[in-house]
Every structure is written in C-alpha cells, then in structure tokens.
Amino acid sequence: MKQKFLCLILFFLFSFHFVWQSNGQDLITTSQGDSINCYITKVKPRYIHFLNKNAEGETFQSLISVDSVTYYALDFFEEPEINDEILAYEKSGTGVLITFDVAYSHRLGKVDASLPSGFAKQIKNGVSFSAQFGYLYSRTSGFGFQFNRHFSNADFSGTVLGSGTDKVKINFFDPAFYFQSKSEYSKTILISSFSIGYMGLDESLESSKSSDAVIKGSSLGIGYSGFLGGQVNDVIVLSAKLGFIYGSVSQIEINGQKVQLQGDKRENLSTLSFGASIGFLLK
C-alpha cells in the first residue's frame, strides 16, 4: 500500500514539473548581438521555439538554434510587444478537459472452444463507458485520470451448468498522460492518452444446475485512447474514439476462494473499443 501511495506521489511530482509556464514577455540574445523580444513557447536541447512579430505586425512562430543563443530570460519585459490575442492563441488549447464516451467493446482473449458459439460471441462483445478528467497545461501536453468499464451479458443453455446468465464487468482506473495535436487552420483536434493503472474483473454467473458464482480478480493494466474530432465551439469537442486496454490476471476469487491461473489459463482482460465521445474544454 505504501509503495502504491509513493508511486502516485512521484507521478504527480513528475507531472507538475512540466505544468509551470511563463506568462510574461521574454528575451533572447543572439551571438550576433541581436535582442529578440518574443514569447518563448518551448526550450529544447537544440532549439528554442518562440512567437514573434514581423515588420508588418503579423505574428509568426519560429525557432532558433541553441548554439546561436548567448542568453535568454523569461518575463524580461514589462510591456510586451506581442499582444494578448497572440498569448491567448498559444494557450487556446489549455484548460480542464472532461470527456464522456460510449463504445462497442471487444474482448481480445480466447474463449473456451467447448462453449456454444452464440455464448462465446456474446461474452466477447459488449459496450464500454468511460470518463476522463484531465488538465491540458499546454497546447501539446496534459495529465489526468480516466475510468473505463467494459460490460457484456451472455445467456447460455444446454451446457453442463444448464441454462443461465454470465455478466462480466472489466474496470480500468488509472492516471494518464495526454498528448494533443491541434490544427492551426481548422478546428480539428487529436488527443491521445497513455495510461497505466488498476484493472479489475467483476463477473457474476447464474446457472440452473449449480450455485451462483461471483468471480473477482485484479491486475495492472496498460491503456491507450485516441480521440479524433472537431471543436463545435470554444468549449465542446465531438470526436470518434479508439481505445485499447491490455492486462490479465493470474489469480481470481470464486465466491471468496482464491484460484491460481498459470500460463495460458490466465484470464485475459484486454479489450479493443470503437465509439463516440463528447468533451468539454473549460478554461
């Protein structure tokens, strides 16, 4: 428990290391003696990226080699040459992101070949519901949390268990990193999230020839979500979603009794989903 809590703290410390961004006007001094009054957007090992204005007053994005820079400072000028509209453009993709989506979800693990084909199809195919809450601290990056639930319901008959119903829920709750790509000339937006966190199985089996069974298990899962869509306005984003979650459990509990699963007997909880999402970007 202590190790999980420590990992969570380290995750947030790592995230907040990148949250801070300068809001003032910056200075770059070149090896040729030129001073550039600009707005620095990124500092990379080889280049410094910035916003500036040309002689006609038009703003543009540019970069300069670190080898050509002798000095740079953030918040150097009290009265910026780049107006508030340009700074607002740079921060137009930032804010709190909340999304909700529903999708067709398909389990990727193998199903016992002895099971009726109709039952196998039902148990592998279902729906998923998910919600994400994150903070985009720049036009390209962010962090947050997400919750995803896969649900399938299968009816069976003519088996050794008689007839009955098998209800399966696969839950995935995790911290996530977001990477955003936003078109400068349209409202098209692409957001990808990569995550690692808790993955749990909650299965309820009801049959006519045996007592009901509740099956539970948990493991570490890895997830990816991709959202491609467009901004309806400054707040609402509609998109198509692709989701992939990978994980399996080596130990389950059947009515409280622990059962070890070895090798290919491990319960594969991996899912692939396609659906639609609505998102809200709150400044």
The CATH architecture assignment of the largest domain turns out to be Beta Barrel
Cross-sheet strand order for the largest sheet: 6-7-8-9-10-11-12-17
Instruction: Give the helix proportion (percent range).
Output: 10-25%
Largest sheet properties: 8 strands, antiparallel, barrel
Q: How many β-strand stretches?
A: 17
Number of helices: 3
Low-confidence runs: 1-7, 9-23
Shape, per Cα inertia axes: elongated
What is the residue-averaged pLDDT? 80
CATH top level assignment of the largest domain: Mainly Beta
Kindly estimate the percentage of residues that lie in beta strands according to DSSP: over 45%
Output the radius of gyration: 25 Å
Class of secondary structure makeup: mainly beta
* CATH domain topology of the largest domain: Porin
| String of helices and strands | HEEEEEHEHEEEEEEEEEEE
Give the tally of structural domains: 2
In short:
The chain is mainly beta and 283 residues long.
Q: What does this protein look like?
A:
With 283 residues, this protein is mostly beta strands. It has 2 domains: 74 residues, SH3 type barrels; 188 residues, Porin. 11% of the residues lie in helices and 63% in strands. Strands 6-7-8-9-10-11-12-17 form an 8-stranded antiparallel barrel. Strands 4-3-2-1-5 form a 5-stranded antiparallel beta sheet, with helices on one face. The chain is elongated. The two termini are 35 Å apart. The N terminus is likely disordered.
Key features?
283 residues, SH3 type barrels, Porin, 2 domains, 5-stranded antiparallel sheet, 3 helices, 17 strands, 11% helix
